[in-house]
Amino acid sequence: MSGIKVDWEAKYKSFKAERTKELVDKLGNGMAKAAFTVERQAKINVSKTGSDHPQVDTGRLRASITSQVKEEGDKIVGGVGTNVEYGADLEFGTSKSPAYPWLFPALEESRDKIKSLLSKG
User: Which residues contact 114 (CB under 8 A, 6 or more apart)?
Assistant: First the structure.
C-alpha cells in the first residue's frame, strides 16, 4: 500500500479578548455608578444637621467629595474620598472632638444599591 496523506487546516477566531473587554467595560460602568452612589450619599451625610452630624460651615468638605474608578491589574477599584485635611478628623474624631462618621456610613447605606449595580454590570 502506497502512502498518501491529505492535510487540511481550519482557522478559528477567538472572541475571548472581545468578550473580556465587554465584561470589563460593563463592570467598570457598574462600578462608576456604584462609586457615584456612595459619593452622593457621603455628600448627604455631611449636610445633615443635628448633634450627631457635623454642621456645615463653608461647604468645602461636601464640595471636595469625589469618586473615581480605575483598573489595577485584573481588578476594577472604586473609591470615594476627599482631599480636605479635616475630612478624616470628622470621620474618626480627634482627642479634642468627637467622631462624626460620614464616609463609612455612606458606604453601608449604599450597600444594597452597590450590589444591584454591580450584578447588572
Answer: 34, 37, 38, 107
Q: Measure the CA–CA gap between 14 and 59, rounded to whole angstroms.
A: 52
Please count the structural domains in the chain. 1
| Distance in angstroms (rounded) separating the CA atoms of residues 120 and 30 | 7
Q: What are 110's three cell numbers?
A: 449604599
- Cβ atoms of 78 and 113 within 8 Å: the answer is no
* Residue 58 in domain: yes
Q: Whole-number mean pLDDT of the chain?
A: 86
Residue 118's H or E segment, with its range, is: helix 111-120
Domain housing 72: 17-116
In a domain, 11, yes or no: no
Q: In this predicted model, what pLDDT tens digit does every residue of 44-92 receive, in sequence order? A: 999 988 777 777 889 999 999 999 998 888 888 899 999 999 999 999 9
How many Å from the N-terminal Cα to the C-terminal Cα in the chain?
Answer: 62
